[in-house]
């Protein structure tokens, strides 16, 4: 009952089928080859044309199955694996047409009904399929379109509109913590809150907090902050803003400017910025004495920090801040109870996700020997830390910092009570518990991610994009004389220009020219997407745009 069509050009599939018959659920191409002694270049061209043709006739949820001989594909699934330049580079070719590799499995001819391996045409020579692999491709989500976004937030009695920084456009209003969300970040927040409430009475849990703060967070590096300018006509008066923030934010560490001798001068202009921490909100609770001794107050929400590009450095993540007031002299035992409760909850969650028990350790800040990740390093800027909360699994049980514990500053303490503040990075915990290696996957718009996490359940994540291709580009430039190069701003520009497809930036060379003293830097920029198709041409265009942007915004001279 099947319709058989002959003389089909695999690079022009659309021409062979009527419009009503172009939505194929499966397209199979077993052992494609140009014929005769065609080299890898011609066969790559064949595959590239085939994938572009498939994009016109494949159903939205359809699959493309391509079987290749052992070693041809150029992926880690091939054993042995050919050198990249000597392979057919199938994943990169598919990415150029908007497809990602979702599964790979051995090609087993005996399991395919009616399939017969006949060997080479007109030759008494068998065709070897031993070690052959079937590559299964699916459609990728479309590239993100970063159209400008305005956001409105409440500051006291006034509503203020502002332009969302372009690098954060796809991360605003995602609703990960909302009641109807099945995102693993919300599941961890709910389970941790329930676990902590068994050890301490839970006084309140709040996740509706102002996004904007005013002034400058004391001790925090200026380049780590997302500074915000209210939209024209929306900037409230200084007096009204100050009154409005008195109850909502209480985060300005600006007082008055001082001259070089430390004498007070003119007031520093008030500025706005996206909250880098929920700590000011906790400090407002403490100042009001709006807590019950021995009871927990839990604050949750996204926070925003400019940072360098690494797999675990997140410009936005969900913070869970626990506030606990205890009697003076009992703070150490209460901190241990708090950590034990967190460890018990995480252990139960991890066993449900993968059966591997995580290691949770409380390490004293004064003797912490491991290298600080970006989360911990930024927390140090916010104030003194007593303990780091580290989590990991075998083979690295010591793990990395996922939380910090501190006590309230001296001016907020009382004679009878000590307030303990525990800050947890819910995104890093989700990565640990679900086996997610790249933070960007938490923010993917691909529905295949959330399908793996039914509401209230954590599972070991299985990537739907295998062996994504990477593209390496170098950029070299002269730094302006007498200026310190802002590497965080450099990384932030790379995030914005690439739509978070830059996975690594490494300093390759730092050269100072004899005589003139001019300094030149050379960086290696690696483009790779964890969840969508990224072709070599698109990466090259991003690199060119990146070069233009750093010249315009950082004042460097390209080489």
Automatic annotation (TrEMBL):
The gene is Fdxacb1. It is found in: Mitochondrion matrix. Keywords: Aminoacyl-tRNA synthetase, ATP-binding, Ligase, Mitochondrion, Nucleotide-binding, Protein biosynthesis, Transit peptide. It comes from the Eukaryota. One of its GO terms (molecular function) is phenylalanine-tRNA ligase activity. The keyword Ribonucleoprotein does not apply. Residues 466-559 form the FDX-ACB domain. GO terms for biological process: rRNA base methylation; translation. Belongs to the class-II aminoacyl-tRNA synthetase family. This is phenylalanine--tRNA ligase. The keyword ATP-binding applies. Its EC number is 6.1.1.20. The lineage of its organism: Eukaryota, Metazoa, Chordata, Craniata, Vertebrata. It catalyses: tRNA(Phe) + L-phenylalanine + ATP = L-phenylalanyl-tRNA(Phe) + AMP + diphosphate + H(+). SMART domains: FDX-ACB. GO terms for cellular component: mitochondrial matrix.
